[in-house]
Design a protein that fits this description.
314 residues; 3-stranded antiparallel β-sheet
Length: 314
């Protein structure tokens, strides 16, 4: 009886001993950061719960990096290699070495096993969503800034990033001048088309104005260009003629604009334009003579009067 009791106690002691000798290992990925500064992505093996591993902020070499906060991104990895894999995805997705926001000086490059490209991309998306949601909920990173502070940070980041791209010959600076022109042209057309359709769909911008308001704005802008000699008014007559011919030739070759219309559509459009023009009445501000737009132009030219000296009365 006593022997059995002692045996039970001994087994328990042995179990406790083994537990102390081989504590449970935990693996997790994290993002440590300065409250108003840089951040750092890494992975970690610890022998306590990841949320209790509060004194560890990363194995970074940047002596100026002083992180005070840490977010546990994921902590249910079965192996160290799995944590390494997500660390690699995070670092590559955010380009941590090139990006001045991060304190990482090098990339984690090995996991001792490989993931498919599709799986790596999917894991990166998942981790990115978790990180973004966590930062949003806690009001961290960019979400801790006011709208004005975000604008300033964005401008600073763009400036630093631009200089970095120039130095490394990356981004747009890795392209030839001809390649940049082609990319700019494609991007401008696509962005303009998509943006225009969205503005029209939402009824904002110019599409929020009535026809009368657009007409007034157009006249006001035209008058401003004429007074300042800007826009088309800043181009010599001969040059405007050449531009008009070139534009007309392009429309003809591409079958766009007027050349995209059938004969019936053009005829109908001309009839409507003729009716609209003939119904207008304009008055010469010099002599007071009233006529249609074309009639008043002929009259003013015959009298040597500037054809712009007129007002519409009907």
């Amino acid at each position: 009886m006593l022997s059995g009791t002692f045996s039970c106690i001994n087994n328990k002691d042995q179990t406790q001993s083994r537990t102390m000798e081989t504590p449970k290992e935990y693996y997790y990925t994290y993002y440590s950061y300065e409250e108003w500064g840089k951040g750092y992505f890494g992975s970690r093996k610890c022998y306590c719960l990841p949320e209790e591993d509060v004194k560890y902020f990363g194995s970074f070499c940047d002596k100026n990096f002083k992180p005070t906060q840490k977010i546990i991104l994921k902590s249910d990895y079965a192996t160290r290699e799995e944590a390494y894999a997500d660390e690699i995805i995070l670092q590559e997705h955010y380009k941590v070495v090139e990006n001045p926001h991060f304190a990482n000086r090098s990339y984690q490059t090995t996991t001792k096993f490989c993931l498919s490209r599709e799986q790596a991309i999917e894991n990166g998306r998942k981790v990115g969503k978790i990180t973004g949601k966590k930062c949003y909920e806690l009001g961290l990173g960019i979400f801790s800034l006011t709208k004005e502070e975000r604008k300033i940070a964005s401008l600073k980041g763009a400036s630093i990033g631009g200089r970095r791209n120039v130095e490394l010959g990356t981004g747009i600076f890795s392209m030839t001048e001809e390649e940049r022109k082609i990319a700019s042209s494609k991007g401008g057309k696509l962005g303009g088309k998509n943006g225009g359709e969205k503005v029209k769909e939402l009824g904002i911008g110019i599409h929020a104005l009535t026809t009368e308001q657009r007409s007034k704005n157009g006249k006001k802008i035209g008058q401003k260009h004429k007074e300042n000699g800007t826009g088309v008014c800043g181009i010599p007559t001969e040059q405007r003629k050449r531009m008009g011919k070139k534009s007309g030739q392009q429309h003809y070759e591409n079958g766009t604009g007027l050349f995209a219309m059938t004969a019936e559509q053009k005829s109908e459009k001309n009839k409507k334009a003729g009716k609209t023009t003939s119904s207008q009445k304009w008055k010469c501000t010099v002599t007071g003579y009233i006529s249609t737009p074309a009639g008043l132009s002929n009259y003013q030219r015959a009298k040597g009067i500037d054809t712009s000296k007129r007002i519409r009365i009907a």
